[in-house]
Structures are given as structure tokens and as C-alpha cells.
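Rotation project, supervised by the postdoc (A.L.). Task for the rotation student: set up a whole-complex structure prediction and record inputs and outputs verbatim in this book. Inputs entered:
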Amino acid sequence: MKPPRFSYHDPESVSEVLELLGRYDNAKLLAGGQSLMPMLNMRFVLPDHVIDLNRIEALSYIREVPGALEIGAMTRQRDLELDAAVRARCPLLPEAMLEVGHRQTRNRGTLGGSLCHLDPAAELVAVSTALDAVVSVTGPGGTREVPFAHFPRAYMTPAVEPDEVLTGVRFPLWAQGHGYAFVEFARRHGDFAVCSATVLLEKESGAKITRASVTVAGLAPAPLRVREVEQALVGNAASEALFRDVAERCRALDAMGDVHAPASYRQQLAAVLTRRALEKANARCA
Amino acid sequence: MRDVPEIRVEAPQPMSEKRTIAVTVNGVRHEQEVEVRLTLADFLRQNLGLTGTHLGCEHGVCGACTILCDAHSVRSCLMLAVQAHGRTITTVESLAPGPDRLHPLQAAFSANHGLQCGFCTPGILMTLVEFLREHPDPTEEEVRIALSGNLCRCTGYQGIVASALDAAKRLRTAGRR
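Outputs recorded:
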């Protein structure tokens, strides 16, 4: 038996979860289990209580509301990949989802689980940064909305208190016909990225860019919105030369190095992947 | 006087928490009391004796323990047995229609050298059951991506990919009959 001993709870509502979180210390929330279960099997975490969210049907939904998609925290990554409304209104999500783990892990893995695990190079974390997602966090005092820019508090540490639970995410929609691209480099298909670039573009009927979102992940403890590049794009006509010039600025971003890649290599990837993502997004603009 | 290290006696472990679960595995309903920390993979292998589901890494990397939970492929080392309560589980033992007959997927693997030691094969077969149901006529590239979560250290994957493509053909033919 690999996991350590713990008490198991499988509540069917968010209010029961809050009650359990209030009652017990050293409790861990179990979402899709694709990160927590390996850590339990290796005994990296030793919770006294595991609170399983998988029986809470109210946390699994995808709703189209005016100007946004609202998605429940326990929605499976598979559904983000295949849902018709997501594919039609926010095609960036399915594109990034194909790089999240593998078919077997996306069948279990959830939106909320990935965001709370908060790996610096996780695809869902990058996409939530790019889309200015708003996270709903519910605690004993009610629900608060956290703009995704304030959600990562530190390395792999989300802005969720021990007595709170992430319940849903709102993804604001871009105009129909917007360009989008998620491009990453990983050593093997399905690995966390060494570096990724996420781009969204809106253009006027000509070539002029009217709105841009550029996110680079894998350099810092949380994905970076590269405002300088966004500002350099807006108001200008899309062209290969423009994309090459602005993407080059990503080489100057601060980067961390680790066993997988030194900082200089990540900066090189940031520049190259941003250029590729810009070109791909531009080609998709209606 | 030498320092004598303090002898520390560990507090006795709390009693292991147990629960009774009811799971349908390969069409048979099982009701058993299990420890809550038991993984689904260990439940299948140790409690039910279904050792066709293999355990390689036990932390969700190798894919050998892939099974179907409510018809979707999942890694059974990353689920607790208690989470399978009320669910329908399908393992590699369900594939062959009889002791002397192979499922079209198994026949394709036999014909195309899709396995050598065979350790990874159950997980690959169960992944392909779901994949080929959703993609009856896949490209080679799609097969390679579908199998990216299953590690094989013998074959170099060429035989596995050929087997999967052949299996797709066999299943399409079988479906037409």
C-alpha cells in the first residue's frame, strides 16, 4: 500500500467541504488526483484528511454567459478539449489542452486541480493568464473573485486559504474571429513545457492589430504577461518583420534555470516561441 | 558523561480507516471492505486477483495500469479504490471473447510484433480501446500522440503503432459485418 494513512471524506456539496475544512487541520483537497495521487503514492505529502471533490456534481459545468465562459472547478480537462461551446468561443483552451499530459490524465484531471497545483509551466495556468481569467474562491465568508494576475502568490502557491476552495473560473471571451495560438517546447509530448508562448490577437478589417495578449510561461514562478510586446503590437500592421522584432524583446526577460534548461536557453525559447505563436495567431485572424 | 540520545517512541499508528465499496468490474459486481488509501490498481490486482492490470511506476508516468472507468481510459494507480464506488471498471481481462480467441486488438498486436516482454501491453490495449472507439480511422501521427502516455522499453514503438493501425482496420471490418 503506497499512500500514507489518512481519513477519507467524500462530500457532495461545497458547503460540506467548507465544514470539513473548518473542522480539520492538515486536510488536502483531492480533485482529479493527477498530481496529488503521485505525491501520496510517493509520500511527499502526509495529510491527515483527504477531502475528495469528485462527488460534487455542482462543480462540473461549462456555461456560456454574455461575454464569457464560466467553467466549474471539477470540469475534466477532457471536456475543456471537446466541449462544443469551448471549441467555438474559446478555441485557445482546446489547443492548449492537447498539450496537457495524456489522454488518460485528461480524462481525470480537472481545471481547478491544475490551477491550484500551479506548476509554473502548466498549460492551463498560462492560458488563464493570457485570457485574464477570474477565479471564484469560496470560503466561510462567502465567495470572492480573484483576477488571475493575483492568483499565483508564489512558486506553486495559489491565493487560496486553507479554509477555502476554488469553485469556478470565468474566462472572458475575445471577439469572434480573433486569432489565437498556444505553442510550447517540451522534451516529450505530454510533459510540462520547458517554455510556452500564448498569443491572442484582434485585428481591424485591414492588417492593423487592435488588441493583443502575449504570455510567456516557464521563465518565472508564474506565467508572464509581456505588456511591452503587447503595446508594441497594438496599432501596428501585422507583418513578419513586426513579429520578429517584438518577439526578440522576450529574450531580455528574467528567467530561472534548472536541471531541465538553463536560463539563457529559456530566454531563447521565449523569443522563438513567441514569434511562432504570433505568426500562427495572425494566420487564424478572420 | 556521554550524551545519551533520547529514545523516541513513535505514537501508535491510528487504525486504518475502511469503507465498503460496490464496484462493477468486467460486468461482475463486487462488494468489499477496503482501506481508504488502497489504490484502484492494488484493489484490482490484490483484492480481485485481476493481475492483467500491470503496475510499473505507481505515480502516473508509465501507463501500464491504464483501465477504463465508466468507459474512459484512466491510470488506476492514480485513483483510490473508494473512488470507484458505484462506477463501472473494465480491465484487459475483458477483451478476449474466450480462452482460445483473441480480441481484434490482441490479434493485431500478435500479428505485428506489437509486444516483446508484454509488460506495457495491457495499458496500451486499454488506451486503444477508448482511442479507436473515438477515432476509428486514425493517422499514424494520431496513434503516436494517443500512445504518448504509455511507455514501452522493448519495441521502439514501431510494432505498436503498426499494430494499432492494423487493429483499427480489423475493428472497422468487424463493425461492418
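Student's summary: Chain B has a mean pLDDT of 93.
Supervisor addendum: Chain B touches chain A at residues 13-14, 16-17, 19, 35-39, 42, 58-60, 63, 66, 69, 72-75, 77-80, 82-83, 127, 130-131, 145-146, 148-149 (CB under 8 Å).
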